[in-house]
Design a protein that fits this description.
The protein has 64 residues and is mostly helical. The longest helix has 15 residues. It is built from four helices and no strands. The chain has one domain.
Amino acid sequence: MDLPAEGFTQVLTEAGLPAELAHVLVDADLAMGRGELFTDSGDLRRLIGRPTVTPAEAITAALS
């Protein structure tokens, strides 16, 4: 379920996060939704020295 930015901020602060951190996380979430954090440069793969995986692949591997 998608929450509006104000609702997401409220959930995070009610969970105990400082308001400043909640705003940073909400802003990052909004940026991801706009595709601003997408890159296919391969920089992360080169930095970590292995192929990158999707979140679903990482969770599956962690639970195996």
